[in-house]
Specification:
Lysozyme-like, 6 helices, 2 domains, 7 strands, binds zinc ion
Length: about 230
């Protein structure tokens, strides 16, 4: 996985927020979508994508009366990422105080029955893999939280916090846990990330046969410390 293009607020022409609130904790990433219809834009056409993001910001600020676009980041079907409130700012998107207190809001720019593209899913996982984690004082995992291997955090969807169809067809993909294979763990290459995923599984699941040592250089004292 390579890092997606992440466009700053200045680059998409964001309005200034009317106020900002710091997010004190960060241990869940909540997926969102646009609602019953797809937002209107051409994936991969930056000007078209940026215009769609500005329309959403205008709606949230002028229509809803919120301080800014509600989301932390917005993800186009092209995989392009647009900075919303960014990391470390409380969102208005999750539909519950706890959700807003402890979670970042990641918005897929799609609606209705549209399924997320591979590019959008990869960008979502890049954000999940790089989200700063601050354990929250809440005793319980977030509702229906899907534990992220190797990270002290969970994923869930807007509908896990309140009654809504959001995040549409993103939700079954979350439930499938197919995204596990796209976690990055801060490594440079997919091969390194794959190795880290195997390591976490080997350490947490005694029945898991990792094949962990395949392809690794042999240590001069390779009889030392082997588990298998
Ligand atoms: Zn939502």
């Amino acid at each position: 996985m390579t890092a997606p293009a992440i466009y700053s607020r200045a680059s998409w022409g964001a309005r200034e927020p009317t106020f900002l609130v710091d997010l004190y904790w960060s241990d869940v990433a909540v997926a969102h979508y646009n609602g019953s219809t797809d937002p209107s834009y051409t994936p991969g056409d930056f000007n078209s994508e940026a215009a769609a993001v500005r329309r959403t910001q205008n709606f949230h600020m002028d229509g809803r009366g919120w301080s800014d676009i509600a989301y932390s980041f917005m993800i186009s079907q092209s995989g392009n990422v647009f900075e919303g409130r960014g990391w470390g700012r409380r969102t208005a998107a999750q539909g519950s105080s706890e959700g807003n207190d402890r979670g970042h809001a990641l918005y897929f720019m799609l609606g209705g029955n549209t399924v997320p593209s591979d590019e959008a899913k990869a960008s979502f996982m890049y954000l999940v893999s790089t989200m700063p984690i601050i354990p929250s004082p809440y005793e319980n995992p977030p509702p229906n939280g899907l534990e992220v291997p190797g990270r002290d955090m969970w994923l869930n969807g807007h509908k896990d916090w309140k009654s809504t169809a959001c995040p549409g067809e993103v939700y079954p993909w979350l439930q499938s846990r197919e995204w596990e294979n796209e976690l990055m763990f801060g490594f440079e290459t997919q091969a390194q990330a794959d190795w880290a995923i195997k390591l976490v599984k080997a350490l947490t699941d005694p029945d898991y046969s990792s094949g962990l040592h395949e392809g690794l250089p042999t240590h001069p004292n390779s009889s030392e410390g082997r588990r298998d």
